[in-house]
Amino acid sequence: xxxxxxxxxxxxxxxxxxxxxxxxxxxxxxxxxxxxxxxxxxxxxxxxxxxxxxxxxxxxxxxxxxxxxxxxxxxxxxxxxxxxxxxxxxxxxxxxxxxxxxxxxxxxxxxxxxxxxxxxxxxxxxxxxxxxxxxxxxxxxxxxxxxxxxxxxxxxxxxxxxxxxxxxxxxxxxxxxxxxxxxxxxxxxxxxxxxxxxxxxxxxxxxxxxxxxxxxxxxxxxxxxxxxxxxxxxxxxxxxxxxxxxxxxxxxxxxxxxxxxxxxxxxxxxxxxxxxxxxxxxxxxxxxxxxxxxxxxxxxxxxxxxxxxxxxxxxxxxxxxxxxxxxxxxxxxxxxxxxxxxxxxxxxxxxxxxxxxxxxxxxxxxxxxxxxxxxxxxxxxxxxxxxxxxxxxxxxxxxxxxxxxxxxxxxxxxxxxxxxxxxxxxxxxxxxxxxxxxxxxxxxxxxxxxxxxxxxxxxxxxxxxxxxxxxxxxxxxxxxxxxxxxxxxxxxxxxxxxxxxxxxxxxxxxxxxxxxxxxxxxxxxxxxxxxxxxxxxxxxxxxxxxxxxxxxxxxxxxxxxxxxxxxxxxxxxxxxxxxxxxxxxxxxxxxxxxxxxxxxxxxxxxxxxxxxxxxxxxxxxxxx
Length: 624
Hints:
Elements: E1 13-14, E2 22-25, E3 28-33, E4 43-49, E5 61-64, E6 73-79, E7 96-104, E8 113-118, E9 152-155, E10 162-166, H1 168-175, E11 183-187, E12 195-198, E13 210-216, E14 225-235, E15 241-250, E16 257-265, E17 273-278, H2 282-285, H3 293-306, E18 312-317, H4 329-339, H5 345-348, E19 356-358, H6 376-382, H7 384-387, E20 393-396, E21 404-410, E22 413-420, H8 424-427, H9 429-441, E23 446-451, E24 458-459, H10 465-474, E25 480-485, E26 490-498, E27 501-509, E28 521-527, E29 532-539, E30 544-546, E31 553-556, E32 567-574, E33 579-587, E34 591-600, E35 605-608, E36 611-615
Parallel strand pairs: 17-18, 18-19, 22-23, 23-25, 24-26, 25-27
Antiparallel strand pairs: 1-14, 2-35, 3-13, 4-6, 5-12, 6-11, 7-10, 7-13, 8-9, 8-11, 14-15, 15-33, 16-32, 16-34, 17-28, 20-21, 21-22, 26-27, 28-29, 29-30, 29-31, 34-35, 34-36
């Protein structure tokens, strides 16, 4: 029997069930609901408006408008008769794995989020603003008319385009017994920003709303469970070292379980590092639209707290630091009091603090206007004199600090970020030549660009004029990684490949999501060992992560790392509850390894997340 000899130089992998990330694969079934397709006719929509309190809109395109004065308009959407035991329905209690509402954008589009709140009261096709069901004042998001927090949201920026909205949360509630009254679509933006919802009255069936739901086809069968993952090292029976990989697999149904272990030598590459994206803080520094300075202060405090743990190499502020540019100096005093803390060695434990780079947004310029004018207060608090003594400051374009660059290191990985002010790239070809020259001098560094208005939210959405000018000028550099910005509330990304090199566009902005943005920021983790870039979205103020696909995703990126495929180490059939061990032999001292396990009852498969260990020495003797 294997008896591992564990020594001090070995970093053991031991976890409890709560620490083990798993994914489950199962037999699934997908059903689709769309009026006029396969005999379904249960989709229903109605538009209600404050200005016409006793009228109902039931046309092909229904308008969602801002919740202000008499312009407020809401749209009610429901897919009826979708839960049941008949063929084509979703069985009650089914485990919903994914639900997508597919929508075609009409003649009106929104540059800001449209929110989908689950309705809690029934309604009919002739519903009106003055309906008694919601107190004769439109649908209120109060936990009685509709859930207070949206179950889904999306930005519908482009006309004549299909969009997919993740409504999994709603479908899970309905499958578990909550009444299905559909959603109310509304807009939280205070300024006018219409959205035209294409209803089931559209002539072309393809342009009608479609609900696509995938669920567990065998909910009575429970997935296996994996506990107690561990690895310990000992001397190989042949050469080098060996690892004993252990887990305990259990099954509620007491089925026999198939266990497979997989492993590979970890790629030799630089460790992961992170870049924080800090979008539009204007309503924190002005304390407007529900935004407060504690939201910005919470962001900075969190960055300082986790900077070493998450290997945060740099912070990119995406512009609109203030709301009124050269009009109100107080907003700049607030911004600097928070952001200067990133520079503090005593707070950060780093000699130069956490490097950061700021983009000049339209609200940081001469205001009103924001047309590429002066940025006097920005330069007073974040100008050349403030940065030129810092080791990470690279230099600037022209006489001010509106366009500049920062150099940062993350161990073996080195980076450069260039900031370009709002509207300047589209107007100033010399600025783009300067930026190209800067990157050319630093081809040994991974390059990033920030400009306030990079692109519009959505998947594969178009670049803005600034973003397009930057991409066209710099796309030939193989070290250019991504161009990021804010400006328009929502999230999005795009992928461009030129001469075999991939450049990503990223947009994040939360200012009109309520309460000025609620402190949400982006965390971009670059993983050379996995040739991946991971993007997550978090609010230190709320201690809340956004889990929707626009906020939590990963991207392929070629860091030049040769990554081996996982290979099967061993497979066995075991009884439920039995401890299972796999001996991984012939491991090389001085190398790191990754492994994971799959457990299946023949119908459902559970897969652990990858775990790592390093062989720093070889035991002198192996136990018997």
